[in-house]
Design brief:
DNA-binding; 3 domains; HIT family, subunit A; 19 strands; alpha+beta; seven-stranded antiparallel β-sheet; 18 helices; Histidine_triad_CS
Length: 622
DNA sequence: GTTCTAGAAC
DNA sequence: GTTCTAGAAC
């Protein structure tokens, strides 16, 4: 615990952060600082110490944060919003009461106290929640190992921040340094204050850039990496730390984007969802940026040519912030985390291991409920949150417009099926009229090729039972039928595997099918088809929208109905490889990637027979 | 489900 | 300029 004698006097313009490990430390720290002068209570449980002569004030900010393994953050993810770090929050949230707390003690010159107060107020008054503030954390480029002059660098940082800060709307930039005594941080702080840069949109932060959320409670969607030209891990400093923290998938994802980087340039890399930086810290993108090098012992040294150096450093920050703006734009277009959250089951929400991801998604959901103005609402997302099996029975435009065909209103779900959506229904009701299309006709099911296959092998096992339009209509009494459909699908998959043992199959249902009449998809996992043309096609087979037959059967056995999380946004969410989970910007790029990706399938798919493989196929080879 | 196409993104 | 997406119509 800090003793009074250990509290060095703060110089004007400097900040001090003290981490306390429990409530007693917090109280004792406040007491110790109180001894230096009277403390004023600020809003939101913060305290400020006024010293009018020195124009120094201290703000002690409590932020409620569990000091446990980072993976457990999710259990009080909402409470992290209560952080006095400049994240907006729900002031009423009390979920972490009684848990171990840390406190952040911040001393600052008068200008900065204004900033602290703003931060504290922001955590109470802001009408958007923390996860909605898109944040870029960036280290100072080139001032460490590349030995760029701090004075010059700080001028450029402030100049570029000033240029971009007005384009940020609901987003912010944070300059991060590990060291409390960081010269570049104090220079930038002073210069930013002088230029009256909005402290809600730009501030400095002392902490480990790879642990901003788990250690500092600061959620950042994107972090910048002071990279090397090879875009390789290693070296030292920030680059090594970020690659180490992100795990090997960052290197893979980076390689897909660029092989090397020129000084002054940046490359935006979406973080694969298995990266610890993504799961633990909530970072969705790493932006590698290469600055000018003044260190003669590193490649491409500029030999102290600061004319060139400054120009390149400006370019580097421009590239970095432009890259961040592009991430912001894509976020505005589609709040992707919403769909990711809805992909997870309700029980996942209670799973502490989800940490910042839930923190984000909860807040994204909140904003969709409370504030239409912040995000452009996707028409598709309206009114579809957490709908239950019963909810999806309501007529929906998803199913095409009412055509006057009386059959469209038949069946227990009473939803409107467009005329084009009736084809399978007609086949099931009158298989004898469609013999040429059928691969197999059995008592309860018929088998046919999908008219627009999305993979080399893609067929449908179609139930003949009238009144079973989709998964939502399936109940306990249909268990035997589901098992038959699965067995028939499996038999066909095995037949194909016999012909080509390298194939892999998946059997499952679309949560909300486009075509009427319950049908099981049997689809090979190559997804090599000209008919696979858009996001909806991909995501309907590669998100939670696709319900594995084995899981559906289990749910019917155990609960008498299938869990259906209806969320149209699932179908427009980001495109990720079904094997390595890497993200891709569009369908053509995704398709060229999946044509070569040899990564093993995710464990979740390899479990419980969700994937059907040739018996002797050795996945350790791939 | 597909096709068509305007306009956004590159 | 081309590529790509996403909404409307069917």
């Amino acid at each position: 615990m800090l003793q009074k004698k250990e509290l060095p006097k703060l110089n004007e313009g400097f900040a001090r952060i003290v981490f306390c490990h429990n409530e007693n430390d917090v109280e004792a720290t406040i007491k110790a600082y109180s001894a230096l002068g009277p403390l004023d209570t600020l809003s939101n449980g913060c305290f400020g110490q006024k010293n009018p002569d020195a124009k120094i004030q201290l703000g002690i900010m409590k932020f409620l944060k569990k000091v446990e393994a980072p993976s457990s953050l999710g259990s009080c993810s909402d409470s992290v919003q209560d952080s006095a770090c400049p994240q907006a929050s729900n002031a009423n949230n009390t979920c972490c009461k009684g848990t171990t707390k840390q406190s952040l003690l911040l001393g600052a010159a008068s200008k900065e106290v204004k900033e602290s107060e703003d931060m504290a107020k922001g955590s109470v008054d802001a009408d958007v929640s923390a996860g909605d503030i898109t944040t870029l954390a960036f280290p100072s480029i080139s001032t460490a190992d590349f030995q760029f002059n701090n004075e010059k660098a700080s001028d450029i940082i402030v100049e570029k921040v000033e240029e971009f800060v007005n384009k940020l709307e609901n987003a912010r930039l944070v300059l991060v340094d590990l060291s409390h005594g960081s010269k570049i941080l104090s220079l930038v702080r002073a210069k930013a204050a002088k230029r009256n840069i909005d402290s809600k949109k730009f501030f400095t932060f002392v902490g480990d850039i790879t642990r901003l959320y788990s250690q500092g409670g600061l959620h950042c969607n994107a972090i910048a990496n002071a990279s090397n030209w090879r875009l390789k891990p290693g070296g030292g400093g920030v680059n090594a730390a970020i690659f180490a923290a992100a795990g090997p998938s960052l290197e893979t994802a980076t390689k897909e984007r660029a092989k090397s980087l020129l000084p002054g340039h940046a490359v935006v890399v979406p973080l694969p969802s298995d990266s610890p930086l993504y799961t633990r810290e909530g970072v969705s993108h790493v932006i590698h940026v290469l600055g000018p090098n003044m260190n003669p012992q590193r490649p491409n040294s500029l030999n102290n040519d600061y004319t060139k150096g400054c120009s390149i450093l400006r370019e580097a920050y421009t590239s970095l912030f432009t890259g961040f703006l592009s991430i912001m734009r894509s976020r505005l277009k589609l709040p992707r985390r919403i769909s990711e959250k809805l992909e997870s089951s309700p029980s996942d929400l209670k799973d502490p291991s989800h940490g910042p991801r839930n923190h984000l998604t909860n807040s994204d959901q909140k904003i969709k409920r409370d504030d239409d103005s912040v995000y452009e609402r996707s028409k598709k997302c309206k009114g579809t949150h957490n709908e239950t099996v019963a909810d999806i029975s309501a007529p929906s435009s998803t199913y095409g417009k009412v055509t006057g065909d009386k059959s469209k209103l038949e069946g227990p779900t009473s939803k409107s099926w467009g005329s084009w959506a009736q084809a399978l229904y007609h086949i099931a009701m009158h298989p004898e009229k469609h013999k040429e299309k059928l691969l197999e006709v059995l008592d309860a099911v018929v088998v046919l090729n999908d008219l627009y296959p999305k993979a080399c092998k893609h067929l449908l096992v179609l139930a003949q039972h009238e009144g079973l339009d989709c998964l939502a209509d399936v109940h306990q009494e249909h268990l035997q039928l589901l098992m038959t459909m699965h067995a028939v699908g499996l038999k066909w998959a095995e037949k194909f595997l016999h012909e080509d043992s390298s194939m892999v199959f998946r059997l499952g249902y679309h949560s909300v099918p486009s075509m009427r009449q319950l049908h099981l998809h049997v689809i090979s996992q190559d997804f090599n088809s000209n008919h696979l043309k858009n996001k909806k096609h991909w995501n309907s087979f590669n998100t939670a929208f696709f319900r594995d037959s084995v899981d559906v059967i289990e749910e019917i056995k155990n609960h008498g109905k299938a869990t259906i999380k209806v969320e149209d946004c699932q179908l427009s969410m980001e495109l990720r490889c079904h094997r390595c989970r890497s993200a891709h910007p569009n369908i053509p790029r995704l398709k060229s990637h999946i044509s070569i990706c040899q990564a093993p399938f995710p464990h979740a798919l390899l479990e419980n027979g969700r994937l059907v493989l040739a018996p002797k196929h050795n996945w350790s080879d791939t």
